[in-house]
Amino acid sequence: MNDFAPALERALKPSLPGLQGLNGLTRLSGGASQETWSFDAVCDGGVIPLILRRAPDGQPRVITETSTAVPLATEAIAIEASRTAGVRAPRVRHVLKPEEGVGEGYVMDRLQGETIARKILRDKEFDAIRPDLARQCGEELARIHAVELTPELRKVLPVVDGPTQLRRYRDMYDLYNYPHPMFEIAFKWLEPRMAQAKRQALVHGDFRHGNLLISPRGYEAVLDWELAHIGDPLEDIGWICTNTWRFGVQEKVVGGFGDLQDLLAGYEIAGGGTISIDDARTWIVYGSLKWGIMCMSMYQGFLRDHSVERAAIGRRSSETEVDLINLIIRGKI
Amino acid sequence: MMDQPSVLELVLAVRDFIEQKAMPELKGHTAFHARVAANALGIVARELEHGATSGDAERARLAKLLGHDGGLMELNRELCTAIRAGRINLGTPGLAEHMTLTTRDKVGIDQPNYGGLKRLLADGI
Which of chain A's ends, N or C, has fewer CB atoms near its CB within 10 Å? Predict the structure, then answer.
């Protein structure tokens, strides 16, 4: 399974001076076309904890209808552009080349922290920092959205603005051919409101629990940049406020840990500008609609693999309809 | 007529077996999937109990909105087409109420503990 270890060690030699060997190479997660491995590089100066993200040879990342995932090498470019601009993200140590024989992917620092929402929202060790997390997320998002869109970034990242996203999800919804009147209402409601972006920026694209690394000291980094694109920065604001990421802590709009006002205040303090509650609401509605259609796509997956998990997520589509009712009809966030 | 136990009782028996007997013997991903399976049977049980009543109420509201009766699938498709074409919108009398009640009943079957539903119920809907 890890027969690529010697090749990986050879590949890392130029990037890690004094490299003596690799330890503890362990598969963490991932599907058939995308793997995440944890390991330590033993160097003259000490041990460097690292992560390898890779797609094995000849199996490039699967781009599904639900995602705009970029190639792993592009993900590495987006991370490094952000990190060098002051965004907290893991340092990329090496981008794999085809001739190195490890596959497609890159190696980055393994940072300390927790990504599991239930722990972040419930464990005592996070009690002290939880009240400040929304503001910290706001600041961090402002920094991501301030990353200069250099010609290099513009060359590799797709432009996916509001209208494009809405069209993509409309197409998917139409393809699934199952009537959801509440989704129709949401599309109608969103079309004029998402028509014009106030500005274009680097968007992380999946800023939510699971990708946020939190430690007892607070916000550490955002991981998994595979959905990075150029688009409307409000998208990241709306997604972390979408009800599905609150994990039952309904009243804490931001990821189940904080208030929208704190997120927006942090965003403004860090130079992101002022965002109105109405603009935030528009993108929370979009987040709910998007998640609802992603639930519908789970049913399509279930038809192929008969997984009980996908079947169950299919039935979570109605959750997003109740969210859309609270947001659109009842004016609540 | 089928004999006892009822289909609802059978489903609940299987759910309880998974939750109380099987799950403690399982580990890792399989244990997680057993929980998902038990929750899915909970959906089945609630739909067996309440699905017909809420479906009838939904159909009656749809018939009133659209001006004629029909099957649930057919009426929902027609409502979608009308919303998309702009013939029916949230200003149309009865639509907001229909969506709110229909969704309340759907989520009550799918995820009765969902926060968004509790919020709706807390306001007396």
Answer: N
Q: How many CA atoms lie within 13 A of A204 on its CB side?
A: 30
Q: CB of A332 within 8 Å of any CB in chain B?
A: yes
ipTM field: 0.96
Tokens 């590949």 -> residue: A11
Any B CB within 8 A of A13 CB: no
B118 touches chain A (CB under 8 A): yes
Pair (A143, A251) in one structural domain: yes
Whether residue A42 contacts residue A124, with contact meaning beta carbons closer than 8 Å, is answered with no
What is chain A's alpha carbon radius of gyration, rounded to the nearest angstrom?
A: 20
Measured distance CA(A240)–CA(A105) in Å, rounded: 27
Task: State whether A77 and A158 are in the same domain.
Answer: no
Q: What tokens were used for A111?
A: 């940072």
User: Which residues does chain A have within 8 Å of residue B110's beta carbon, measured at their own beta carbons?
Assistant: 315-316, 318-319
Domain with A300, as residue range(s), is 117-329
pLDDT digits (tens, 9 = 90+) for B54-94: 999 999 999 999 999 999 999 999 999 999 999 999 999 99
Tally the domains of chain A.
Answer: 2
Task: Tell me if chain B has a CB within 8 Å of the CB of A28.
Answer: no
Which of A245, A322, A329 to mutate against chain B (most B CBs within 10 Å)?
A322
pLDDT in tens, A112-163: 999 999 999 999 999 999 999 999 999 999 999 999 999 999 999 999 999 9
**Nearest chain B CA: its distance from A31 CA (Å):** 14
